[in-house]
Design brief:
Layout (H helix, E strand, L loop, with lengths): L3 H11 L6 E3 L6 H14 L1 E6 L7 H12 L2 E6 L2 E5 L12
Parallel strand pairs: 1-2
Antiparallel strand pairs: 2-4, 3-4
């Protein structure tokens, strides 16, 4: 789990990022989890946008993404989910 200090640090880093994935009507599927996992490996910190037409609520989407990608949930703000996963090859973010 992330500490409060680590979450604050990651929230500050994620502030300027734009969402690179959108979860829509189809909800979360295996292909999306695979792509988000690859993006997390490359970037470590990403934002995912939950569209209005999504069948599932944002908390459910966040839980599925965290479980599927083995990532950590930084925050859910509005309809945006911020995820963090330490990269194996390209580690850039050093947590406090």
């Amino acid at each position: 789990m992330l500490t409060g200090k680590q979450k604050r640090f990651l929230r500050a880093k994620a502030h300027h990022l734009n969402p690179i994935f959108q979860v829509g009507k189809g909800g979360v599927n295996e292909n999306m989890i695979q792509q988000i996992s690859e993006a997390l490996e490359a970037r470590e910190l990403i934002k995912v946008s939950v569209l209005q037409n999504c069948d599932e609520d944002k908390e459910t989407v966040a839980k599925k993404l965290v479980a599927g990608c083995h990532a950590k949930l930084v925050q859910i703000i509005g309809n945006t989910i911020v995820l963090y996963k330490e990269s194996k090859e390209k580690k850039e973010i050093v947590l406090p």
